């Protein structure tokens, strides 16, 4: 049971403290487990601080996303393979990512938010950011993928010939 | 050999975040292009992420894009082949691949589908077509066509092999696959 006015204080890896509603933190498996483990009275306002291994700047982005998604259904609906796709990111989320995805430090932020979503166990945010990453290489050629992902081809010529042969059925 | 430099994920370096994989080599040949990509935010050193997050990210791609990802480099090929999200619940399965298949398993598999492998030859009561690719010298690649099903087995003479099964939906797709083997 989540009381709308219940608040929890989060302490970040760089020493900041942020107090947020449990309406937001209920989407974080990590925070909810930490609160449960504390075995505190749910009526305590605010609850004891929960330490999160996320820096303040990233946590602010996470909270911004959680605020928009505070009414999302829980538990987070698991997707079947049939439903797994990268092109169904909601418009608000696209705009949210776009705010920092076009900046010079976009990869830092995307990297930070993906890992924060993973650490905090926020499935919706993790899926959205991983889809954003997938969209960077969606429909690209292998060579373009290497450019985007900054990876060198380390296959031998024979291995490459073998891969081309294996993949020929879907490339045509 | 092309010159290389070591790329480290900026997030990890600037924000002190832990990474689970080794630094990623990148090609300097395309440095100019990459600079443009940096400006537009269209690049991402994916192997700076923990393996499970790389796997989760590529799970949202289509099969076609995933096969391309597996052709990028060895690490991504390994991650893709080990992905748990590859086939579970798939309702449009047209191809599956299994790595490190032992001799005992692939012989059982062939037996199950009515094909016998003995002394380097395949036998069946059905009308199957068997091709051996002679263009690959390091390991042997056999392709067997059994009506609309194409079975590839790579590395039969090794301790483990790679088994690939492809279901061709149309006669045209089947003929195209056969023609490639005849070449």
UniProtKB/TrEMBL annotation, chain A:
SUPFAM superfamilies: POZ domain, Skp1 dimerisation domain-like. Residues 8-71 form the SKP1 component POZ domain. Residues 123-170 form the SKP1 component dimerisation domain. Keywords: Ubl conjugation pathway. The keyword Transcription regulation does not apply. InterPro entries: SKP1, SKP1-like, SKP1-like_dim_sf, SKP1/BTB/POZ_sf, Skp1_comp_dimer, Skp1_comp_POZ. Gene3D superfamilies: Potassium Channel Kv1.1, Chain A (3.30.710.10). PANTHER family: SKP1. This is Skp1-related protein.
From TrEMBL, chain B:
Pfam families: F-box. Residues 1-36 are annotated as: Disordered. Residues 1-13 have a biased composition (Basic residues). Residues 18-28 have a biased composition (Polar residues). Residues 43-99 form the F-box domain. InterPro entries: F-box-like_dom_sf (IPR036047), F-box_dom (IPR001810). This is F-box domain-containing protein. It comes from Pristionchus entomophagus.
